[in-house]
Design goal:
It is built from ten helices and 13 strands. It has helices at 5-12, 61-79, 97-113, 163-171, 180-187, 193-199, 213-224, 239-248, 253-256, 272-281, and strands spanning 23-25, 33-34, 40-50, 82-92, 117-125, 129-139, 154-158, 203-208, 227-231, 263-267, 286-293, 297-302, 305-309. The structure holds adenosine-5'-diphosphate and magnesium ion (MG).
Length: 319
Amino acid sequence: MSLGEFDLIRTFFQNKGSSRSDTRLGVGDDCALLRPRPGMELAVTVDTLVSGVHFLADTDPVGLGHKALAVNLSDLAAMGAEPAWLTLALTLPETDESWLRGFSRGFLDLAERYGAELVGGDTTRGPLSISVQAMGFIPEQGGLRRSTAQPGDGIYVTGELGLAGLGLHGLLGKAQVDDESAMARLLRPEPRVQAGLVLREFASACIDISDGLAGDLGHILAQSLVGATLDWDALPLPDSVRAYVARSGDWHLPLSAGEDYELCFTVAEDREADLMGGLGAMGCAVTRIGTIDKAVGLRMRRDGQTIALAPSGFQHFRS
Ligand code: ADP
Ligand code: MG
């Protein structure tokens, strides 16, 4: 006999992993009861992963559990929020116990690492779909936004760009990819939670790169009513991405491919040294890739020319 809804919840999701003293009531009642920290604001985000749209149905369940949570922790990171609580709405075609064991392990291991507790959710039958809600703390008026970049600010990214896009090309058979870190980045992105907490001090605006650098930086520009110029030679591209670009001529990939889950942020000129010190001390690579301009639009300097870039990130519903 297959597992019923309540046995499933008890077996895989109730009282597992991190338990927080500010959770008064977790999984098991009609609502969770949470005790927000005085003097802090609560950052709340939700993301859905749909089978066939965001991942292939045969994706390894451990990696999928990890990624479903990682994309939400990345949204918290982009606001400078400290992870606290999670809810999980799962729609499953069947109760496959080995799949559930893998999925819950990937999800709960990552939650544990960042001290976040799963406090509720919903379980239904239907085509495979995973919605995760994450909540975290920000000091009052101390969070990072998209709308507050200023002309003259430097534009920075953490880590490297284009790896997940290259991994996806490999997965779909569009390119020969022998860099294992590309597939790892695509399937198990690491949210930049610690970097986001440090950036609270330094950044004037911030976003996480889920839909591609051009599109996501484009959101900062649109909401801040500014423009930007990027420098192609400054982009932090791993060797495998450089080699792919050289071989295919497809230099759009590192600008438009999503799912790297790095942070893109802006910093006033006079805070740059402190920023480098702060992120450097925690071992987080950070690169300046351009400058915020008064003139709207996104431009890039490449081979001695300045070209206009369309903010061409991934969008659902666009034909
Ligand atoms: P209700 O019908 O009152 O919404 P449910 O029967 O859906 O309650 O869920 C019972 C309890 O299990 C609730 O506390 C709910 O938050 C929790 N829950 C249900 N599904 C999940 C899940 N996938 N992960 C974590 N908690 C869950
Ligand atoms: Mg319910």
